[in-house]
Amino acid sequence: MSIRRFRVEDLAVLHDANQASVPGVSTETMEDLSKWIALSTCFVATDEADNPLGFLTLIAPGTRDYPSDNLRWFETYAAESGKSVIYVDRIALLPETRGMGLGQALYQAAFNHFSGLDEIGCEINILPPNPGSHRFHQRLGFHQIGEQTFLEGEKSVAYYVRTLP
């Protein structure tokens, strides 16, 4: 397995990984996913033949073309805390590759790439529940700094950050 940057020919497989990861990530059309990847830094985990297995996208606060309440939350957090933050928009893996360490490898690439910043931030669903993602991020050194409810009883998230080296 290796980690590299996104290539256009990866899009169909990454869309499959995204859709297989719903509701942990939002459902997207292929066109919209392509737009979001174009606005982001996108790392792709690949097999020995360079076939995509999953991906991680990160978006800088201030990216106004990305319509995300979660990104806006991190923009406010960065302004209030005075910290430089990169926002993890999504991580998605093909179902058959889960549990192989790809998520940790993708995050390590992000930690290294953005090491000049103070923190990396993400949101994780509380509703619908995503306990595996909470445990995964906590193992990587993330800690919760906030919550937001979007639709009472249906959609809420926890916000996490991790200090970068």
Describe this structure in words.
The protein has 165 residues and is of the alpha+beta class. The chain has one domain (2-163): Aminopeptidase. Helices cover 33% and strands 33% of the residues. The chain is built from 5 helices and 7 strands; from the N terminus they run βααββαβαβαββ. The protein has helices spanning 11-20, 30-39, 69-81, 102-113, 131-139; strands at residues 2-5, 41-46, 52-59, 85-93, 119-127, 143-151, 155-163. A hairpin with a 3-residue loop joins strand 6 and strand 7. The model has no long low-confidence stretch (mean pLDDT 95).
Topology:
Blueprint: E1 2-5, H1 11-20, H2 30-39, E2 41-46, E3 52-59, H3 69-81, E4 85-93, H4 102-113, E5 119-127, H5 131-139, E6 143-151, E7 155-163
What labels describe this entry?
alpha+beta; seven-stranded mixed sheet; 33% strand; globular; 165 residues; 5 helices; 7 strands; Aminopeptidase
Low-confidence stretches: none
| Range of strand content | 25-35%
CATH topology-level fold name: Aminopeptidase
**Distance between the first and last residues' Cα:** 24 Å
**Largest sheet, strands/sense/barrel:** 7 strands, mixed
Q: How many β-strands, per DSSP?
A: 7
Compute the gyration radius: what is it? 15 Å
* Tally of alpha and pi helices: 5
Which CATH C-level class is it? Alpha Beta
Instruction: Give, in order, the helices and strands.
Output: EHHEEHEHEHEE
What class, by secondary structure content? Answer: alpha+beta
Strand order of the largest sheet: 1-2-3-4-5-7-6
